[in-house]
Every structure is written in structure tokens, then in C-alpha cells.
Amino acid sequence: MLYKVLIEPFVFMGEAPDLLVQTLWEGLVSGVLYALIALGFVLIFKASGVFNFAQGIMVVFAALTLIGLYEKGIPAFLALLLTAGVMLVLAMAVERLVLRPLVNQPDIILFMATFGLTYLLIGLGELIFGGSPKEMITGALYLPQGTTEVTVLGGPVRLQHLDIAAAVIASAMIAVLAVFFSKTRIGRALRAVADSHKAALSVGISLNQIWVIVWFAAGLVALVAGIMWGARSGVSFSLQIIALKALPVLILGGFTSIPGAIVGGLIVGMGEKIGEFYWGPLVGGGIDTWLAYVIALLFLLYRPQGLFGERIIERI
Fold this sequence. Notes:
Elements: H1 2-15, H2 17-48, H3 55-71, H4 76-99, H5 107-129, E1 147-152, E2 155-160, H6 161-183, H7 185-195, H8 197-202, H9 207-233, H10 239-243, H11 246-253, H12 258-283, H13 291-302
Antiparallel strand pairs: 1-2
């Protein structure tokens, strides 16, 4: 039994390196998309210190809004712009109706408010769009279809064109947001807000404006993630469970680190694919549903601040 668990999978990797490359590629695509979703959590956490439980349903709501507008006869790219506008309105509504009245309240109050926002968006989505699964408008958005087969290490590796597009688009968006929030005036204001709300207010930084910008950025992240995940697996309310896979990503990378979200996403994405393909048959499959949380648990035990998080030392 020890041989099957500790040795045989690695022997299989050496005997069929092309299958290892195929597995790593599929894990890389999933990891980049996980990182994109995690980025939405990171931005809101940096601005308010609150884990936004509603980020998962925001992914679903944005995707459903896009599909719903397209089904009403609106051209795909105009529907895309209008959906971005809807996410802006949502950001302004959250700031005005949720964050502003609860400013300076304990973090647990704001966290529970995001629970309420989650179920509000679920109910609103079901009321407007219905509860049945929908197909992403892949063709109308000119997302590529088909497969390219390349020879790697003596064997065929199949690359889905949609996966390539998803990896490129998600990576580009992560890079743009990382540069925007690290190099611009708004990015500096965000870091000031993350350090201290009171200090930020004292130098004239508007918390309300920062919160709107950050929630809108998280909404755009949710929109792109919803399009890519929806194109791969359809759009339904169960998609929010996939979005919450970003939680172990955040634990691995650190709740306040954009590079951590990227690295954590890649670790989770490739780790669960390798685990499912090579160790899944030993336990009957399904490793990809729980492996990320086991890895996160180990990090919580031995490095709770994550790979890139700041170690907090309290002196008594």
C-alpha cells in the first residue's frame, strides 16, 4: 500500500511525462482563474479588513446579468459594458447601504453583512433570471473554440483554445490590477486605508470613494471570472462553490497579498489536478473537491499568515 501511495504515482509521472504536462497545463488554467477570483477577495479585504463572502455569488450574478441582457436582444459587447455598469451600481449601493452605516463596527458585523448580501443577490438573481442553468455566450463574445494538439516529451498534449484564452485574459487582468493598485495614486490610497482607516481619513483620503472603487474592481474581476468559468462549465448558482475555492488560495498566499493570490491560485490549481489524476484512483476520486482545504489546514497550523502575509506580533 505504501508503494502505491508514495512511489507508484511518481513512477507513472516518469513513464508518461506528456500526461504530466497535460495535467499541469489543466491545473495552470484552473489556478489562474482561482487567482483571479482570489484577487477580488484580496482587494476588498485590503480596503476594509473584511472577508467578502459575497464574492462567489457576485461571479454568478455578473455572468447571469451578461447572459440575461444578451437574451433581451442587446449585442454581446454592449451587454458586457452594461454588465460592468451594473457592477458599478452594485458597488455604489454596497458602499452606501452596507459599508457606510457600519463604519467603525467590529469586523464580524461587516462579515455577517456580506452573508446577507450573498442571499440578497441569490434571491434577486433567481427572481430576475430564474434558477435554471444557462450557457455562456461564448460564440457571441468571440471566445475561441477547438483544440490544438502539440507533441511534448514524446507524447500528445491537447490544448483547448478556450483554456488558452482564459489563461491569457485572466493573467492580463491580474497584471493590470496589480500595477494599478501598486503604482497609482488610488493604489497608494488603498494601502493607506489598509494600514489605518483613521490615518487615511486624517490625510484627506475618502473611505467612501476607495470602497466604491475597490468593490467595482472586485465586480469586474467577478465578471471576467464568471465569463471564463461559465464558458468552461456553464452558469448556475452552484458556480459560487467553485468561486469559494479561493478561500484556501487566500490562506496559502495571505489575505492582503496580490502576489500571494497568484502563487496560491497556481498551487491549488495544479495541486488538485495532480492529486486527482495520480492519487485519485487510490481513494475513489473526488480529491479535487477537498485537497485544497487540506493544504489550507496545514498552512493554518504551521504558517497561518500565508506565504506572503505579514506576521503579526502582539506584545503584552
